[in-house]
Amino acid sequence: MEQQNLYHRLSQRIKEISNLPKLKEERSIQDLISENGVSRRDFMKWAASMTAMLSLPASFSPLIAQAAEVSDRLPVIWLHMAECTGCSESLLRTDTPTIDSLIFDYISLKYHETIMAAFGWQAEHNLKEAIEEHKGKYILMVEGGIPAGSSDFYLTIGGHGETGQKSAKEAANNAAAIFAIGTCSSFGGIQAAHPNPTNSQPLSKITNKPVINVPGCPPSEKNIVGNVLHYILFGTLPALDVFNRPKWAYGLRIHDLCERRGRFDAGEFVQRFGDEGAKQGYCLYKVGCKGPYTFNNCSRERFNQHTSWPVQAGHGCIGCSEPDFWDTMGPFEEPMADRRFNTLYGLGADATADRVGIAILTLTAIGIAAHATVTAFKNKNK
Ligand code: FSX
Ligand code: SF4
Ligand code: F3S
Q: Which of the 8 DSSP states describes residue 81?
């Protein structure tokens, strides 16, 4: 019954959105996908996988397809702050366009410096105009850390030298929903790594409005598009974890669903890159994998249409979706080593890994310890 009510409520919302005027030329998502050689069947398969990813019942998959179909009705403003543009590249750099990247083409991006034709004063004007025209209605996506306070001058944009801080604040003030895309915008990222010379801050420190964090350096295309679809469907904040990350994407650790997990449990570890264990696909914990401390869905969703992800490619997870990972998770090719944390049983994960009695390292124990460790390192760095 509850499920039916929810289905009904979400269909109503999609109907309301579909009644909004189209913001772009009359081209449907169907046209766009078939022009790019994607069949309707593949599109429906994609919708089904998105439904599962958003932890919705399988019967909701037609709703996800409809949400994608109306995704051109909501204006999106995307701002670049201090970063490497990897987040945008995560969506855009594909040989053959994925359905996720096609959705990105399809949404009404009113401003995005990497892909728009305008430059100079015209670009500045377009941003102001987009904010004015779509006040209170647009989705704001911000990529990058933001030099703040008296260091704000480290990031200025355009001919008038407006600071990133000012432009992010202004865009956030008038947005309907705000997403911090990438670890830089969510937590400060590499710019904010010790000693943070430009005083780079996460978006949530620049605005008082609620910010949904979508970390990862970069986040996967699935997590970016999934958030847009979730907003279209619900129009409200998703369930969030303590770091304001949507639980549907960041609720489990990399380690929980890793394909090498059986190796970890059996005590089969790569000791050095290129050794026999590496060839056999052993666990990468001892060569630095931070999967046990990292909350993200890479091991389940992978990147580039489920092609691969860091651990599958043979390198451990570096913890890129965690706050302060540059400071707390390195050296990236070594285990936590002397910075051992205690599990509920009083053993560090490294000690346990050496003793092979891995079974005692329960999910709960390591989960609690991982959070405790991150907090401890954070405090140490302050
Ligand atoms: Fe780069 Fe985005 Fe990392 Fe940061 O991604 S991939 S430095 S999260 O802001 O461009
Ligand atoms: Fe996978 Fe890393 Fe966990 Fe090993 S430590 S099982 S490689 S996530
Ligand atoms: Fe980042 Fe680890 Fe995923 S390094 S991309 S969170 S596997």
A: -
